[in-house]
Amino acid sequence: MHFRLDSETAEFSAEVQAHLQEVLTPEFEEQTYRSGVSHDESFAKGLVDKGYFAPAWPVELGGQNRGLWAEQVVKEQMMRFDAPVYLSETTRMVAKIIQTAGTPAMRERIVADAMRGDITIALGFTEPECGSDVAAATTRAVREGEDWIINGSKMFTTNGHIADYVFLLARTSPDKPKHKGLTMFLVPRDSPGFEAQAVWTLSGERTNVTFYSDVRIGDQWRIGEIDGGWQVLRLSLEYEHASGWGPHIARLLHHAEQWAQATPPDGGAVPMSRPDVRRRIARVAMETEVATLLQRRCVWLSEQGRQPVAEGPMSKVFSTEALERASQDIVELVGPDGARAYLDPTSPERGRFEQLLRFALGTTIYAGTSEVQRSIIAQHGLGLPR
């Protein structure tokens, strides 16, 4: 087991970093934040042109055959720079699922365009009354000849107002147990009866509540078997659960170090000269290192052909909770100025501490709450009963 990057991967990582430093200007950063939308078409197309969109994919499918470590360092750099890639990530994830579980016609219709950045796909899992229990979905899809009629609503369909498609979980057999009566669909956003309404999160991100009112789609938009949606969904949940948020802690650490090494306006000693400042920053550095190692362990396992079933949730739980701890600690360390607004030029580090604090609070919910992740670790990692 190793976690150090070989020279080729390290060089690739530096190349990605240089690209992001060039294109993610302060003006672009402000535009993205004020819109609340973590997607920009020209930025995404730029990743495709540079070969950074899906480096581990086969060349014939739009990738570079670079392997999992190249894919990992791209993810790390995108998080480190807080790049607007969430819709690109969900698009790539669903394209991978369609490549595995979709019909030949759907693969031909969707995958190539998705990997060129020509189409985008949002996720439609969570419902207003179900929270993290996605299997309790009540959005209905009723068969009518060769079509399906969909009625219901979904919560937190991020980018659902701009994506071309929504990867939708719907209940097709209400009389079956909740995990066995679900089916997955790809719903075109321009379908009559579809509506997206904005919901703003604490971090300033725009997500959506989406409504399906007699939305009619053909059976060709079904992914996997009827009532086999849970098996298809598990592919995406495994992908999401194996996420790591360590690069965001590294971003916080970078700004904390810059603040601590700068001379105060009153001309006194730099904050780094104080033992308490060094202690707190050292703690953030340690948690950055642990979060990085936990995520890279997942990559190593995948490289060995092993599914990181419990290891992925371990990475997700630790990194998000560490980010929450660290952001609160640094804001407390900086003092009242640490709570001044993001992008305010007079605030320390242009308000990154305040923004990261707000952002961190949601990460323990994204892709399954910490409670869900701990249940997976207990059952699948430790063999404990439900």
From TrEMBL:
<dbReference type="Pfam" id="PF02771">
    <property type="entry name" value="Acyl-CoA_dh_N"/>
</dbReference>
<feature type="domain" description="Acyl-CoA dehydrogenase/oxidase C-terminal">
    <location>
        <begin position="229"/>
        <end position="380"/>
    </location>
</feature>
<keyword id="KW-0274">FAD</keyword>
<dbReference type="GO" id="GO:0016627">
    <property type="term" value="F:oxidoreductase activity, acting on the CH-CH group of donors"/>
</dbReference>
<dbReference type="InterPro" id="IPR009075">
    <property type="entry name" value="AcylCo_DH/oxidase_C"/>
</dbReference>
<dbReference type="InterPro" id="IPR009100">
    <property type="entry name" value="AcylCoA_DH/oxidase_NM_dom_sf"/>
</dbReference>
<dbReference type="InterPro" id="IPR036250">
    <property type="entry name" value="AcylCo_DH-like_C"/>
</dbReference>
<keyword id="KW-0560">Oxidoreductase</keyword>
<feature type="domain" description="Acyl-CoA dehydrogenase/oxidase N-terminal">
    <location>
        <begin position="8"/>
        <end position="118"/>
    </location>
</feature>
<comment type="similarity">
    <text>Belongs to the acyl-CoA dehydrogenase family.</text>
</comment>
<dbReference type="GO" id="GO:0050660">
    <property type="term" value="F:flavin adenine dinucleotide binding"/>
</dbReference>
<dbReference type="InterPro" id="IPR037069">
    <property type="entry name" value="AcylCoA_DH/ox_N_sf"/>
</dbReference>
<dbReference type="Pfam" id="PF02770">
    <property type="entry name" value="Acyl-CoA_dh_M"/>
</dbReference>
<dbReference type="GO" id="GO:0005886">
    <property type="term" value="C:plasma membrane"/>
</dbReference>
<dbReference type="InterPro" id="IPR013786">
    <property type="entry name" value="AcylCoA_DH/ox_N"/>
</dbReference>
<protein>
    <submittedName>
        <fullName>Acyl-CoA dehydrogenase</fullName>
    </submittedName>
</protein>
<dbReference type="InterPro" id="IPR046373">
    <property type="entry name" value="Acyl-CoA_Oxase/DH_mid-dom_sf"/>
</dbReference>
<feature type="domain" description="Acyl-CoA oxidase/dehydrogenase middle">
    <location>
        <begin position="122"/>
        <end position="208"/>
    </location>
</feature>
<keyword id="KW-0285">Flavoprotein</keyword>
<dbReference type="InterPro" id="IPR006091">
    <property type="entry name" value="Acyl-CoA_Oxase/DH_mid-dom"/>
</dbReference>
<dbReference type="Pfam" id="PF00441">
    <property type="entry name" value="Acyl-CoA_dh_1"/>
</dbReference>
<dbReference type="InterPro" id="IPR052161">
    <property type="entry name" value="Mycobact_Acyl-CoA_DH"/>
</dbReference>
